## 1
Amino acid sequence: MNDSISLIIMLSKTLGYSISVSLLMAIFFRLTINKFQTIRSIFLGLTRVSMIFVYVCVPLLILSLSAFLLAAIALISGVQISDPIANTVVFAVSYSMSFGIIVVVCYLIAFVVPMKVTGQFHTMQYEKYGPLSKWGDETRAYKRNIAWEGNVIEQLGTILKDIKGYNHKLRILAPAANNGHEELSLAKTLSNLLHRKIRMRTSDIATMSHAGFYQDAQVTFTYEQRDAYDLPKYLDERQDAIYDPKGILWFTMGQEKKLLKALRLYYDLLEDDGVIIIDAGETRKLLHAYNVLRLNFFMSLTYYAEISTYERLRKCFSTGSQASLLFTIELVPNLSGPYGMAILRKIPAAQEITA
Ligand SMILES: C[S@@+](CC[C@H](N)C(=O)[O-])C[C@H]1O[C@@H](n2cnc3c(N)ncnc32)[C@H](O)[C@@H]1O
């Protein structure tokens, strides 16, 4: 009994110290991450390491909780467990559970809170050294492995080919393009397929190495570091298409207010016959979780690490909803599994509706 009490006191002290240190770290990072690049990089590196710890601790927590439950069942049903075994189990369970809880709590306080408070949770992670800094390369590598572009290009071509007619230069905007390499390749392939000139503008809020300026007789490609919500200040003409897989619409997390703000932004950037192209890969929740784990451990992807933009948005497009007054949404025919895509078409008459 005394042993248990001193164990609990010791663990509470450890938790208390860890929370205090994490809080100090959170305050320090909150005040400095936007001011000093070196501190920002250290913060991201530490976030990555602690996220790996969290992933190790989650199975540990599940195991120790199961052992805890089994011990409780044994106690209730009066099963006698020999003292040395019971002591060892109690010790192992208490230590691993407490360790797991401490790591998860400290990770949340020291790293997640500063990113959330500064409103950068979904963007900082993609920066150099961040836990998802390899997201762009790994996702593109996965898509190359499944010959994604070759499988979807005909359907994308069908959607875009009639916009404004053959002689018009097709203007495509990718406002959350990550490193932009996929968009550059798409612009070249689409222009060959449609025999049309393409002006592809890409941008992303995060700093990262990215595709550079490219120009040939058919394609002009640019990349800029920008917040998508600032684009209206910089764009001097409306766009024919917005290519936004796992981008600005995805980050609205299917929350109606945020989604309407993003849709309104796109609505105003698009021509009246403009379209938004998004991903609609089949949802496979366990595989997504497994692949986030692989990303954190610097491993290649076996499927997408997150659910699709279409899956996130579709519930907001019920009949009569605000979103459905701005755009229609439909799946692109003949594409399924990891190749699924969806398209949102602007409803010009909705111009007077404000989000
Ligand atoms: C999951 S990645 C998707 C990248 C790309 N669309 C693709 O499918 O490969 C999301 C990207 O959105 C960027 N992002 C998030 N919020 C943004 C914003 N407000 N403006 C511009 N980019 C943003 C992030 O930095 C990140 O590179």
Note: The first strand starts at residue 170 and ends at 174.
## 2
Amino acid sequence: MRKFICPVCGCRTLQSRGENDICQVCYWQDDGEYDESFPNDCNYGVTIKQARANFLKYGAYDKQFRKSTRKPDRYEITDIYMKLIDNGGI
Ligand SMILES: [Zn+2]
């Protein structure tokens, strides 16, 4: 089954949208939020915007999860992810 794109790292890692799936690449818990500047309760009050900056810096949406994430598989990589990485320079 084709997976859904994580709103933070842009990888195709989510089984569903809005059902609290955890992205294995950035560890974001997806409650279906799209608003990039909304403090996200199930992600320790981090916004999608902050989460992206943290992902580029630490490899996880929050520093505390940096050891719980993994690199994306080739089939999970999207243009959104590539653009993010290019702009962020990791
Ligand atoms: Zn992600």
Note: The radius of gyration is 12 Å.
